[in-house]
Amino acid sequence: MHILLTNDDGYNAPGIQTLYRTLSSQTKHDLSIVAPEGQRSATGHSITLLQPLFLTEHNLKGKQKGYEISGTPSDCVKLAIQGGLISKPDLLISGINQGSNLGTDIFYSGTVSAAMEGVFLGVPALAISLASFEFTNFEPAAAYLARQLDFIVEHHLKGLVNINIPGKPQAEWRGLKVTKLGKAVYENVFDRRVDPRGRTYFWQSGNLTQDLEGDTDLRAIQEDFISLTPMRSDLTDFKCLQTWQTMFDRNYRKLNLSQIHRRWQRAAKCSCSETRTGRTKLKHHYSLNKKR
Asked: What is the pTM of this model?
């Protein structure tokens, strides 16, 4: 199996390099790396359109190559698969990210967006994150994924699985939970400052408010469980879709009846010397409109 590794922390970040070394030593899969040349956290699903993408090539084990790209995580995946840098992979893994990607935070995440870009291009994907900024030992998370990789791939033929690993020693992990996305809302604070030349600028920060429902990824990590969340690219609200389709279909039918009624009224006022019944007048009025 050919696996493409990417991330949003940068090509030389310890998370992706640890994952590469671990998968190289513990599995027999072919590995390619196409990742940003530097830190691209919280870039979401942005892509680069107004400037060129530069790359730096690296040799990897075997016949595969590694590439540092000047763009975003999504750029990396697009360029790798559609730009012909590598042969189309069988699986994409984005990570291991330093810090969690939980709940609604996934919409800002370059890590998850890179994985979703793979899904858009027909490649099943995993996003994996270490849920801590202080705990920096990626070895347990990488080894866990290496052990479980074949099982996950066997049962995951399309779409995205978002995996978050507790940011603690493996002995403190309590197990695994399959979860849904939770709700994480930031109460943002903007620190207004002025530079020596009088130009105003802001630093953005904030406090995270979490809704810790029992079956969410946020709750699982809070309780030291590995969180595994199946995701898909289709954001359609199907319940709302069905309700609105019924509502608008009903209103559309009412609109047509209203239009017919107005035309009937216009036909009744038609200044034609010939006396007609209502139905004949309506038919006559339509024929006049058609001639116009």
From this structure: 0.82
